Each structure stands twice: as structure tokens, then as C-alpha cells.
Amino acid sequence: MHGDDVASAGVSVSTQIVSKATEILMDLLKLAIEREREAARLKQSENQETVLSGGEVTYQKLKEGGEVTMLPSFAKDDYGEFLKRAKEMDIPVAAIQEHGKENTLSLFFNVKDKEAVNAIVQDIVREKLKQPEQTERMITIEKEQVEGFQMYCSDHDIPVNFMETQNGVKCIFGAAYEKQMEAAVENFKKLHSELSQTSIEVQTDKRGRPKIIVEDTGQGKKLSMNFCTKAKLERVLREQLGFSKVKAVEAANALTTKLSDQQLGYYLSGSRQLEQMAYYEKDIKFENENVLTDRFSFAKMQFQEEDTPKLTITDEREHFVVLSANTRDRAEIEKSIRQHLKVEDTETVKAIMTKAERLGFVEEPKQVQFKEFLIERETQSAFTVRGGSTVVRLDLSDKETAKKQLMDSFGMTAVKADKIIDKAQKQTVVNNLLKKAKEKAVNTATTLRNKKIERGSRK
User: Fold this and answer.
1) Distance between CA 39 and CA 310 in Å, rounded?
2) Which among 221, 242, 319, 419 is placed 20 to 30 Å from 112, CA to CA?
């Protein structure tokens, strides 16, 4: 380990490291919130799982919301700000201060909220770094040491956060804990000196089955076990070799660098890892695009385990909407844009949808070969709309169905459909009948006036 200047900050959730840039984390946050919106809608309709309100809840209540995970060694001084943001984002959390720990808390939350929690904590640390008086410090450690070092800091009441960079993993801590951190580093070096007397390898037996071989020369002990998960190996090292919790974690993490991809997948199968991106493109721009989209940021992404790309659209006020390539219905997307981006201007909505369409997230509008629509209310509950060669008869008593039919038949926007329905409502059947009668009378009179009288020939 070695000292380093403070350049940026991040956070580790459930001892996992965030390895993407801040911009990606913020988009992960948006996707997490969108998932929560969708999950809340599904749970409300299916009534399968309890939906908890955001803010502080008991641990038992938190378990009703699904699988629970934790973030250890969180600064107690930052909990007030964290709880405020969790309430705003409707994220339920529980905090436990263990006996003898004055500086840190253990934060518990549902696994489904891990990306959102991660982004909140990271944002809090980033704001602290912007303060005029620099109060944060940083050291660099090896990636494989993060989990054990975080557990060590948690045991010794030192609040820390982590971030992975090109030069290694950064551990961020407050200047007030500099002496404790120096001691932690020295003790951690001592622990690794002890581990230098322990070898852990994967070997193949006579039947071709992988075995984990652990040999501790310091104790003169050796054990062999079938290939297993990391969590089980940690338990065996504690029970049979007397390793401490931190030492067992460090020993088990050392094995990760010696495994094949297939072995590693199984070995870490008990670990919760943050979703990683297979594709990410930020601030997408086109040549000669509508200036009305300038204040909106478009980011396209796709996760490794998903086949469906996502698109986030964000304005300068941090309002955002998330679109999926699977759901390209124009009416639904227009509704989401208006609701979540708080956009009322029809031209702006049209510009946003046009750009999203070019990116493949909105279906193409139906092409119409006319500019005007002829609207006629025929009865108290029925009206007809004509556009080009298309004629649609609609029920005025069911406005939502009429609106959907207009959008499907003519490819018009929801706003345009509402205007047409409004015009039909303002018409009266009597006036329309009188108008037809007058038109018929005028046409009849015109025919008579233009008719020529043919006279017979005189003899």
C-alpha cells in the first residue's frame, strides 16, 4: 500500500468495487429507479411482495421487501444526509451501530436497491471533496485486498469508501482517521506477511476433478477439499486452520487470480456483484439535430446479461426517463416523456421522440398524405374523422379508446388526438345537420342556375 493524492471518490457496496466512471454510476442510478418504478407497479397489481416506503425502517421490516445486503463501515456523520436522499428516492434502509463503535454504522438495504445506494454514497463523498478545506485522504491498495481491508476497517471503526481506477483501487477516508489508518495499514501488512507462509492452489486429482489444496507451513498443517465456493472456503479456513475472519477472506481472495473463467464463475457464485455494462455511450449527438434537444443528455447502454438496450434521457434539472428497446410504442413513450421529464411543449416532445426514434427506441410514425382532418359529430355519442382516404368512426363516450384509435389510424400524437376529440365535443348534431342542409340547398340552386334551356326549332 502507498499514499496518494485525493483525486476522486467512490464506494464499495457489499464489499464489491464500482469499476465504472461517475457518469455510468449516475445512469445506473436512473436505471435502478426505473426498475423500482416498474417493480412497484407490478407488485401493486400482483400483490406478491410488500412495497416498503422510503427512509428508515427496522431490519425485520426491511426483510419483507426482499433479499437484504449491507454496506459496512459507513461514516456515522454522513448518515443524516444519506437518510434524507434515501427518503427522496423512496429507498428503505436500516442502520445498526455496533457496540463499541462510535464512528461507523452498518447500512442494511434490499439487494434490488444496491445501485441506488451506491450512487447516493458516492455522491455524498464527491460533494465532500469539493469543499474548500480538503478533509479527505486516500491510499492505494490491491484489488484483491479490498474486501478484507474493508472488513478490517469496519472491525476497527474506521469509515472508508473505495473506487477502482487504472492505477489500482483507491481507499478514501477522513483526515481525522489518519493515525488509525496508518495502524490499519501496518497491521494489514503483518497479516499478509503471515499469509506468505500459506499456499492455496487448485490441483486435479486422478479422476480429473479439481481440488483446493491449502498448506500452512507456519502451523505445519495441510488440508485438501473438493472445489467449492469462496464462502465455503472461508468457513473451512476459520474452522480448521483457525484463521481470523479477515485472514480467511484475504486467503480466499488470493485464489481468484489462479482460476479459469469457468472456475471463477462458480467460485464467486455466492458473491453479489454489481451489474457490469457490455455497452455504454454517453451524450449521443447527431449532425443537424433539433436544437430543442440540446438541454437533454441521451445515454445508451446494455448490460452483459441482458439482450435489451436501454436509453436514458436527462435534462439539466436531473429529471430523467428510461426507455427500453423492447417497448417502442409511441403513445406510451410520449406519456413517459411528459410525466418524467416534465415537458409540456409539444414541439420539444416531438424533437425528443424523433431523436429517440433515430436511436431505435421509438417506433416510426405512420406516414399520412394529408394536412387537414375533417371532423363531424354525427350523433350525441359518435363522430367521424376523415384524413386523406382514411375514415374512422369513433365513440365520443369512450375518449381513451377514441384517442388510441386516432393515434393508431393516423399516426398522430396524443396531443393532436386530444384536440380533435375536443373539437368534436364542441360541435352539435343540430348545427351539423343545418350545415349539411345549407350545403345541399346551395348545390341544388347552383345546378339550376347553370342549367341551359333548350328551345325547339321554329318552323
Assistant:
1) 17
2) 319
